[in-house]
């Protein structure tokens, strides 16, 4: 492993980069430290690769090279710092190939899948037992997405797409069935872009088993009527799931995990902006009194509206990794097996067509597990000192 160095520094804007675009910055050489560390040559590299591993089926890590570019920046006598300073600034620029997968990271004890991009500055030190000096900075890359950028601009002007589910349920083992109908509404667009507010509406409508008017009037006012719709948004679980399919040599593996929480579990309700509408229950007659005692049902409704911002790797497919997403909504009801669940596969796109500076920790507006929150700050990844031989 290369020892740390004070002679080399790297100045690169904190951006998310687009495939097909440029990564540029400056290498800063401290000439005083350069001489003390006996550095005789400096070059900078841009590296990109895909790594997959499946244990115990495969004992080897698959690696696919995406980009390997190098520039020789300096050697003794080539350039000197301006008068009055010890710092020499050397600009560089690399082109990111088009159609490469986005930065991605998944790791568990028995499998891993990573798409990694990095800049490496190398200070060459000739001589036996003279280790080269290295400075590495990972970079986040996403596909260039002009179509998704247009979706971001028009997301508030489209209609709604709907996922829905109706379940029959009863509180115990006996009795007539009630029903619960749940709808999840989201923008009617073919893909969900990153880094923009995406509105969601959750409608819950419940209908009791048929009751006589006398039975309906006898229900306690201070107790919920089965099946009760959620009264507050924290009772609903709404999340984004990621399905990762990995291939290493001849073997494959699959993993499903939560990557963002919108409502309910693992969120802080006080930090969520949710509009809630709980209209009064409505009595609907289903049998008039002309043929006997009047019967009807109580219809109860709840509506929750919120917006979320996605900050995850876009959906992608490459020879050894497939990354898919699904919205998962669960509305719980009393009784065994009465929860209503909706799963909707969604495609997520980058939504940017030029380098973006949206990389600050405050960017995501949903609560999420540690990995997706840190995804755009790629410095926390296990790079395992790739290319130490260079």
How would you describe this protein?
- With 390 residues, this protein is mainly β.
- The chain has two domains: 8-144, Immunoglobulin-like, CATH 2.60.40; 146-203 and 223-279 and 299-353, Sandwich (Immunoglobulin-like), CATH 2.60.40.640.
- It contains four helices and 24 strands.
- The strands form six sheets. Strands 11, 12, 14, 15, 18, 19 and 20 form a seven-stranded antiparallel β-sheet that branches.
- Strand 7 (104-107) and strand 8 (111-124) form a beta hairpin.
- The chain is elongated.
- The termini are close together.
What layout of secondary structure does this protein have?
Blueprint: E1 8-11, E2 16-18, E3 22-30, H1 31-36, E4 41-54, E5 62-74, E6 87-95, E7 104-107, E8 111-124, E9 133-138, E10 140-142, H2 146-154, E11 160-169, E12 178-187, E13 192-193, E14 198-207, E15 211-212, H3 213-218, E16 237-248, E17 251-263, E18 274-277, E19 282-287, E20 295-308, E21 316-318, E22 321-331, E23 340-346, E24 348-349, H4 370-374
Parallel strand pairs: 2-10, 13-24
Antiparallel strand pairs: 1-3, 3-6, 4-5, 4-8, 7-8, 8-9, 11-12, 12-14, 14-20, 15-20, 16-17, 16-22, 18-20, 19-20, 21-22, 22-23
Features of this protein?
Arrestin_domain-protein; about 5% helix; 24 strands; about 400 residues; single chain; Immunoglobulin-like; 2 domains; 4 helices; mainly beta; 5-stranded antiparallel beta sheet; Arrestin-like_C
């Amino acid at each position: 492993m290369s020892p740390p160095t004070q002679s080399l520094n790297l100045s690169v804007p904190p951006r998310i980069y687009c495939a097909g675009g440029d990564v540029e910055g400056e290498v800063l050489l401290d000439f005083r430290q350069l001489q003390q560390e006996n550095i005789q040559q400096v070059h900078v590299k841009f590296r990109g690769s895909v790594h997959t591993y499946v244990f115990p089926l495969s004992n080897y890590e698959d690696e696919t090279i995406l980009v390997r570019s190098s520039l020789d920046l300096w050697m003794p006598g080539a350039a000197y710092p301006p008068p009055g300073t010890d710092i020499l600034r050397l600009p560089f620029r690399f082109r990111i190939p088009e159609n490469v997968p986005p930065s991605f990271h998944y790791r568990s004890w028995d499998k891993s899948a990573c798409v990694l991009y990095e800049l490496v500055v190398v200070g060459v030190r000739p001589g036996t037992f003279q280790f080269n000096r290295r400075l590495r900075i990972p970079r986040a890359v996403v596909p260039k997405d002009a179509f998704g950028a247009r979706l971001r601009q028009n997301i508030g002007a489209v209609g709604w797409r709907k996922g829905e589910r109706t379940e029959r349920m009863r509180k115990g083992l006996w009795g007539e069935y009630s029903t619960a109908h749940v709808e999840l509404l989201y923008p009617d667009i073919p893909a969900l872009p990153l880094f923009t507010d995406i509105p969601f509406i959750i409608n819950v409508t419940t209908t009791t088993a048929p009751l006589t008017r006398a039975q309906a009037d006898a229900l306690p006012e201070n107790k919920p009527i089965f099946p009760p719709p959620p009264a507050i948004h924290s009772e609903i679980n709404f999340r984004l799931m990621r399905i990762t399919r990995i291939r290493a040599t001849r073997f494959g593996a699959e993993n499903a995990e939560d990557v963002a929480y919108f409502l309910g579990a693992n969120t802080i309700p006080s930090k969520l902006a949710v509009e809630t509408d709980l209209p009064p229950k409505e009595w609907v007659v289903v049998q008039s009194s002309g043929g006997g005692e009047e019967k009807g049902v109580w219809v109860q409704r709840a509506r929750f509206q919120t917006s979320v911002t996605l900050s995850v790797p876009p959906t992608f497919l490459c020879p050894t990794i497939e990354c898919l997403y699904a919205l998962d909504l669960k509305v719980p009801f009393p009784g065994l097996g009465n929860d209503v669940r909706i799963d909707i596969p969604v495609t997520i796109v980058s939504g940017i067509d030029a380098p973006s500076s949206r990389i600050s920790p405050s960017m995501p507006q949903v609560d999420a597990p540690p990995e997706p929150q840190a995804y755009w700050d790629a410095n926390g990844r296990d790079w395992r000192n790739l290319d130490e031989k260079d």
